[in-house]
Design goal:
This protein is mainly beta. The chain has 1 helix and 20 strands. 34% of the residues are buried. The strands form 3 sheets. Strands 1, 13, 14, 15, 16, 17, 18, 19 and 20 form a 9-stranded mixed sheet that branches. Strands 2-3-4-11-6-9-12 form a 7-stranded antiparallel sheet, with no helix packed on it. Belongs to the pirin family.
């Protein structure tokens, strides 16, 4: 089963300096039909004006992933991390017992476009932590976040794996699923291009919730395709 979440149906926020689209309920956007999937609680598609950003604020007991589509994030947190996160890189901040941070568009002339993702941890009150990495795309589906940090991936405190999908126009990759794997949730967030998932077509900004599929075919119908694919526990 594939349930499509069209880009234009997401929650909308416009603060002038920030234009954001919310896949799931967030802040002033509330939709009881879209509260998250498994441990995946937030996907915010954020566009930040030059020089603007989020002042210092706190988080607790949340795994927060940022993926920059274009531009650069300037990050600073209460553990002394002062980082820049350029386009194509992933950041994972484990809020754990508590962390304060700020995020700004590092440029005074160019806009910033990034996805902010929240995953509920399976254990509360862990030590806060910070991870950041650029990944080579060694295959169409490249794991970037895993529960155990295997093969140099970022480690998340949850039974969840995040892949980056990249396909050239006309290219196809199949994700075969065992019966146990098919009982898990897959969520796909398309960033660019046109993507066919089995018989369902996604355009940029669309999402899709996949359940009970023994095989998933990803085909780049047009353009260069970039997407995030979440593999999530059936029980979280």
């Amino acid at each position: 089963m594939i349930t499509l979440r069209k880009a234009q149906d997401r929650g909308q926020a416009d603060l002038g300096w920030l234009k954001s689209q919310h896949t799931f309920s967030f802040s002033s956007y509330y939709d009881p039909e879209h509260m998250g999937i498994s441990s995946l609680r937030v996907i915010n598609d954020d566009r930040v004006a030059p020089g603007a950003g989020f002042d210092t604020h706190g988080h607790k007991d949340m795994e927060i992933i940022s993926y920059v589509i274009s531009g650069t994030i300037a990050h600073k947190d209460s553990f002394g991390n002062i980082k820049t996160l350029p386009a194509g890189e992933f950041q994972l901040m484990s809020a754990g017992k508590g962390i304060y941070h700020s995020e700004f568009n590092a440029s005074n002339t160019e806009p910033l476009h990034f996805l902010q993702i929240w995953i509920r941890p399976d254990t509360l009150g862990i030590d806060a932590g910070y991870q950041q990495k650029a990944f080579e795309q060694s295959s169409p589906l490249t794991a970037v976040v895993t529960p155990n940090g295997e093969n140099g991936t970022l480690k998340v405190q949850q039974d969840a794996t995040l892949y980056r999908l990249m396909l050239s126009e006309g290219e196809k990759v199949t994700m075969a699923r065992t019966a146990e794997q098919a009982s898990r949730h897959l969520y796909v967030q398309l960033i660019e291009g046109t993507l066919d998932i089995n018989d369902t077509t996604l355009t940029a900004g669309d999402g899709a919730h996949l359940t009970q599929l023994a095989s998933v075919d990803f085909t780049a119908a047009s353009g260069q395709v970039t997407a995030l694919v979440f593999d999530l526990s059936a029980n979280a």
